[in-house]
Amino acid sequence: MTYKEKLLDPRWQKKRLEILQRDNFRCQKCYDENSTLHIHHRKYLKNIEPWDCSSNLLVTLCERCHSSEKQEMQDGIKTIIEALKTKFFGNEIMEIAIAFEEMPFSHSSDLMTEAISFMLANEDQLLKNYYDTIKTIKEWSE
To answer: What are the residue boundaries of the structural domains of the chain, listed by start?
Structure first.
C-alpha cells in the first residue's frame, strides 16, 4: 500500500479526526481555523503505520504552515545545535536532549500553560527570589 493509499485508510481517517478534535480544528502554529488543515507528523518512526503513530507526535497545521514546516525545522535545528555547542559540552547536550524527549508536554502551549500555572501557584516564592536577586546585584554594584 502506498503512503497516499494509507492516508485514505479508515484507520488513518479516524486517527486524523481524533487529532483535529484534540486541536480544536485549528492550526497549532498560527491558530488559523479557516484554511485546509493537515495532520503533521513531528517525527516518523520506521515500520509504524500512520494510524499507529503516537498522538503526541501528531499536530494539526494549516496548509501554509505545513508546507513551510520542513525547512523551518531544518533551519531551527541547525541554529539550536550551533547555539548549544557554544555553551555546553557534548554530555550536557545529551542530557538536555533526553530531558526534552521525556518532557510530558506534546505542544509548546501545554508547556506554557504548565509554566504559568506553576508561577501563579508559587508567586510569593518567585517574587522573593526576584527581589533577593535584585538586592544581591545592587550589593555587588556598590
So the answer is: 3-106, 107-142
For residue 6, what are the contacts with CB-CB under 8 A and spacing of at least 6?
A: 12, 49, 50, 51
The dihedral of CA 53, 77, 112, 126: what is its sign? positive
Residue 128: predicted pLDDT: 85
Q: How far is CA 9 from the centre of its chain?
A: 27
CA–CA gap between residue 94 and residue 101 (Å, rounded): 10
- What H or E segment, with its residue span, contains residue 58? strand 58-62
pLDDT tens readout for residues 76-124: 989 989 999 998 999 998 998 888 788 776 666 677 777 788 888 888 8
Other CB atoms within 10 A of residue 27 CB: 22
Contacts with 20 (C-beta within 8 Å, 6 or more apart), sequence order: 37, 39, 60
Neighbours of 28 (CB within 10 A): 21
pLDDT-above-90 percentage for the chain:
48
pTM given for the model: 0.64
